[in-house]
Structures are given as C-alpha cells and as structure tokens.
Amino acid sequence: MKKIFTSIIAATLAAGTVAAASYTGGIFLLNEDWFGHNASSVNFYSYDGDSIVYRAYQAANPGSTLGNTAEYAAIDGDNIYFCSKQNYGSTGGRLVVADAKTLEKKASIDAIGDADTRAFLAVSDTKAYISTSAGVYTYDKSTNTVGPAIAGITGEVGNMVLVGDKVLAASNDKISVIDAVADALVKTVAVSSLTTVFTVGGQAYAAVNSSTWGAPGSSSTEHFLKLDATTCEPTDTLAVAMATQNTWFAWKNSNPAIDEQHQVLYYSPYEGCNFISKYDLASGTFTQQFITFDGSQQMYGNVVAFDPASGYIVAETFEGYSSQNYYLNIYKTDGTQVKSIKLASNYWFPSMVLFSPSEQVSTGVASTTAAGQVASVKYFNLQGMASDEPFDGINIKVITYTDGTKQSLKMVK
C-alpha cells in the first residue's frame, strides 16, 4: 500500500468555539465519545477545507447533546437521525432528529418503549422503523413521534433493510420479515449466527459469522446468504473466509461498505483486526487483507464506508483500548491510501461513518469527455437501492457515458 500523503489536523474540543453553520461536502463521524464523562458526539470532516469540527451537534445546539453510546445514524430527506442506546441525562435522547445540513435539533426522543435504541430505517415519506433491544417500533416522521411496536417481534434487533414493500430486520438467530405497509410481521426466517442484512442492486443478502470476538477459528461459520426476493429465504451460500463481524455481544453497526456500481463489499471482519476485507459479489472473489492499516492501527467495530460520490473508501481506526491515538483513513478502490488524518488524542471510540448531503455537487468519480454521450443514468439512495428515477431525499446520480467514463453527482430531490 502506497501512502500519498499524511496530514495531522489539530482541532479544539470546545464546542463553544466552533461557528460552522453548514455541513455539506464531507463526512460525518459518529462517535461513542468518553462513556461516563461525555455524551456521544458527531464530528465533521470537510473534503474541501481538509478540516475537522469536533462535537458539531453540540456546537449547533448549545445545551443539547446526543444520547449515550450512539452506534448508528441515517440521513433521510432533510433530516439526520442519531440512534443512541440510552439517554444522556436530560440533554440528549435515544433518538435525536436534526437538520442534515446544519445539525440544528428538530426533536429528541427519550423513550422508545422500554428499550435501548439500535438503528433507524425510513420506509416511506412519513414512516420509519426503529430497531431496539426489545423489538421494532414504528415512527411518524411528520410528527417525530414513536408509535407502537410491531407485534410478534421480540428481543434485540439490529440492522434493517427495505426490499420492495418488505423490511428485513436482523436478530442474532433470525430475520424478521415485516409488511412495511401494514406494519405486521409476515414471517421469521431462521439464520443461525446472523450478523446483518443488506442490499446490493436491489438484491437482499444476509451475513453469517459465528465468531463473536477476535479472528475466526477453524470451526467458525463464515458466509453470505443470497435471499429470495419473494420468500426472503436463503437461496445461495456465498463462501468467504471471513464475513462481516458479529457484534451482538455489544451491538454495533456491522453493515459492509457497499460499492453499488461494481457490486463490491468492504468490511472489517472482526473486532480489533488491522485490515479491511473485500468481497466482489460479481466475480465471487474474496480478498482477506485488501487494505492493511499502518503501524498498530486496528478497527473498533466496523467503521468503514464507501462514498459513491468521491469513489473513496473511508475507515476510522485506533491503536488499542489503552491508546489515545485515533485516525481517519481515506483510500482509493485499488487500496492506495489518499490520506491519513490523526484525530484528537481524546477522541475515544468511533462508531459509524456516513456522508453529508450536498445539492447538485459533482465530486468526479471519473471525468467526462467532450466525445462521450450519455449511455445510462442510475439513481442510488443512501440505503443502496437503485432506480431509473430519483428517490425522494438524497440521491447519488451515476451517469455512464458511451466512451466508458462515469460521473457521479450528489443531489436532493
């Protein structure tokens, strides 16, 4: 791996000194922060400014915070939804809703039944689902209110994905298939050692990993499952030496980073590993150590994401539980490192990376040529679903030209 350049950015942690008013054209870095001392936080890296704003939500909302142990966030339309396992005193709830560009607070929800929050999934213009430690709850986006739990779903639920008019919700031993119109459990599909569910090109997959901590042993079960579009039952087993990590011992987001255009997955296969694995769904090729981190850097959870607008793989690392060294790493899809940024020394534990909205801004996956004519146009939403027409909210518009070049635009409908 060739490192092109490295920069170290020093930034203040005092939210009151930050005056940023808009967060576009960059990366949101969701962070557990210092448990027992600080609320969870979201930080922002700007591509253009090559700079970081720490605790950006607190800066935009003096006196307010996120909740405790935030592990998941999702952007839908004009809003960003932050999921924290618990409240943080009276200043931050289990679900915080903010403007996706300014981070100004719109709502903070303290109670979701009697459970801890896991993940958030928009299922229509007005409705979403919230997964928790005790089932799945409905959520009215227009009023920012929590509705009833979906009957029949019990126990801890993690990642969810929308497939047509169904939602697939992952637990550690099954997939709950939900009718997203009627808000009703249709069936459960038994999947032992399930880690997550996700879609690529509209096709649903599940990941299986029986190793709950550390590198898998020879007896561990590791594979991906292709799911039938109608029955949601497994149809094909895709063997890999290492699948996405099992985090049910202390739930974290375990979805892989997805390059939708090329049908490629990038992920950290186990807690504390020092590399990113790559799985090419189109060719069935698995590369265990596709990217190896510098020095003693390793993964806390699975904090890796793919930015379809820039074409970059983004990962956050640390140097161990007793270390104060944290990094934001950016790579090309050939594994070449573009940038490594040393984060603040008391940054604490990262939990998720997601990309900020920007209207009609091209970041140039590949430059177009004057001779190139448009061959096709596809739109991708932030859940990875593809369409010939733009989705409501944020889209990645991918234009393919007849000369083989491509252009990617972030846009908001």
Furnish the topology, listing elements before pairings.
Layout: E1 7-8, E2 26-31, E3 41-46, E4 51-53, H1 56-60, E5 68-76, E6 79-86, E7 95-99, E8 105-109, E9 117-122, E10 127-132, E11 135-140, E12 145-149, E13 160-163, E14 166-170, E15 174-179, E16 184-190, E17 194-200, E18 203-209, E19 222-227, E20 234-239, E21 257-259, E22 264-267, E23 275-280, E24 285-292, E25 304-307, E26 312-318, E27 326-331, E28 337-342, E29 350-355, E30 361-362, E31 374-380, E32 386-387, E33 394-401, E34 406-412
Parallel strand pairs: 1-28
Antiparallel strand pairs: 2-3, 2-29, 3-4, 5-6, 6-7, 7-8, 9-10, 10-11, 11-12, 13-14, 14-15, 15-16, 17-18, 18-19, 19-20, 21-22, 22-23, 23-24, 25-26, 26-27, 27-28, 30-34, 31-32, 31-33, 33-34
In quaternary terms, these chains amount to single chain
End-to-end Cα distance: 39 Å
Total strand segments: 34
The value of Rg in angstroms is 20 Å
Helical proportion?
Answer: under 10%
> What is the number of helical segments per DSSP (H or I, 4+ residues)?
1
Provide the low-confidence segments as ranges.
1-20, 359-372
Residue fraction in strands? over 45%
Structural class: mainly beta
User: For the residues shown, what is the average pLDDT?
Assistant: 88
Largest sheet: 5 strands, mixed
Structure description:
- The protein has 413 residues and is mainly β.
- It is built from one helix and 34 strands.
- The strands form eight sheets. It has a five-stranded mixed beta sheet, with no helix packed on it. Strands 30-34-33-31-32 form a five-stranded antiparallel beta sheet, with no helix packed on it.
- The longest helix is centred in the N-terminal third of the chain and has 5 residues, at 56-60.
- Mean pLDDT is 88; it is low at 1-20 and 359-372.
